[in-house]
Every structure is written in C-alpha cells, then in structure tokens.
Amino acid sequence: MTGTTVLRLRDRDIAVDDTMRAAILDEMPEIAWIGDAALRAKVLDAWAAAVASAGFARIGDMKPSGNYDGLPLRHGTQADHIRSVARMALKIAEEMDTLFPDFVYDRDLLIAGALCHDIGKVWEFDPDNIARWKANPRKSGYPSMRHPGYGIHICLTAGLPEEVAHMAAAHSAEGELLTRSLENTILRWADHTFWMVAEAGAMLAETDDWTAPNKTA
Q1: Where are the alpha helices (DSSP H) in 54-136?
Q2: I need a labelling partner for 120 at 20 to 30 A (CA). Which of 53, 58, 68, 196 fits?
Q3: 3-state DSSP call for residue 204?
Q4: What is the DSSP secondary-structure string of 2-15?
Q5: Are 96 and 36 contacting, i.e. CB atoms less than 8 angstroms apart?
Q6: Measured between alpha carbons, how far is 89 from 87 in angstroms, rounded to an integer?
Q7: DSSP class of residue 202?
Q8: What is the average pLDDT value for the chain, to the nearest integer?
Q9: pLDDT tens digits, residue range 96-142?
C-alpha cells in the first residue's frame, strides 16, 4: 500500500492514499486475507474511493441494513455485515472443500467479491440521494438504482476482475436473471442467511430511527 491512486466517481477525481486505505483495512481486516497483492490493493482502493465519493468518513457511516428502507441492525455496522457475510461465505467453501475433493473454488475471488458485494450501497444509502429521490420519485426513480447496479460501476472503475463485479451485480434479486458463478452462489446464500438469521435472532431494530452522521464533504 504505497502511493496515490486516482479513481473517478460521481464526476470527481478521488485521490486514494495510504491513510484512506488503512482506514478501510481497519474496518474490514479480512481484506488482508486476499493472497493476491494486486487484487487486495484494488479492493482497498475501490472501497476508499467509494466511501470518499459519497462524503462518508467510513463504511460504518452507512445505515446497517440490507436495503436503504430496511430496518437497521440493533448493534454493529454496515462493515460488520459485510465482514460477517465474507466470513460465512469462506466457511461454506472451506467445509465443501474439506469434505469433497472435487470441489474447486477460487479463494481470493470469493473473499474479494464477498467484501465488495455491497460496495454500491454508497449510492443507494446516500442520505442526499434518498432525499432527492423521495422528493421526486418520477424524475430518476426511487432509488434511481439499487446497490448491485452501482456496485458494478465502482468495481469496473477500480479495475477489479469481472468475477468480482459479477458478485456485486448479482448477489441479490438481480442475480435471478442470470446464472451466478460458483463464488457468487456461495455469497448469495451467505448474504441471505445473514439477514434471515438477523431477523430470527431479533438482531434488527423494531423501528427505523437511524440517523445518518454528518458527511465529511
């Protein structure tokens, strides 16, 4: 992690530096599990630029929910959700790999894709965007696009592999319109399991009283 990378998001050039990368890694230490150094660096840069482009100080500034209008977690952050899903996805793959010798998966792509699956929430969960959409739903939609759609944009802009962009794009309902990769299939069920267990375990707030923190820019 050295030097500055410039990524263009929301008509702005975002200069990603080591301080920004360190902040992302502090929130999601599982990024360090990615063995390929180049892939690991692109995941860090993608998240750092995405967070900065929305004026957030951290991933945890986003509402900790599955969708912008969903009930938030009682405890924990959006980063904790993403981390948990990535860890569950990896456990699923490791269990299959341990018991079935013909099971083959790409560990780095699974981790990278799982950690980037909700990166598009920086658009869908942006309070300024939500207020704008709510004021005039028929102008650009409400929301204009869900996080899987915007996630594709961020992943490809950051130079992440097609396989990772596919996982951001198709981990949710959008994925019912295509054939998911193996890694994305694992991710899809880890993500679904997280929210189903969170609901069953009374981990979701009863009412939505989430207040977004002040933006940095």
Answers
A1: 78-99, 107-116, 121-124, 127-135
A2: 196
A3: strand
A4: -S-EEEEETTEEEE
A5: no
A6: 5
A7: T
A8: 96
A9: 999 999 999 999 999 999 999 999 999 999 999 999 999 999 999 99
Rounded-to-integer distance, Cα 34 and Cα 112, Å? 7
Tokens of 131: 């207020």
Q: Domain map of the chain by residue range?
A: 62-200
Rounded distance, CA 151 to CA 167, Å?
9
The position carrying tokens 């820019």 is: 217
Residue 8 burial (10 A CB sphere; 0-12, 13-18, 19+): exposed
pLDDT in tens, 146-156: 999 999 999 99
- The domain 62-200 is classified under which CATH number: 3.90.25.10, 1.10.3210.10, 3.30.1360.20, 1.10.1040.10? 1.10.3210.10
Distance CA(61)–CA(129), nearest Å, equals: 15
In angstroms, the Cα distances linking 117 to 12, 43, 82, 98, 213 are 23, 11, 8, 25, 23
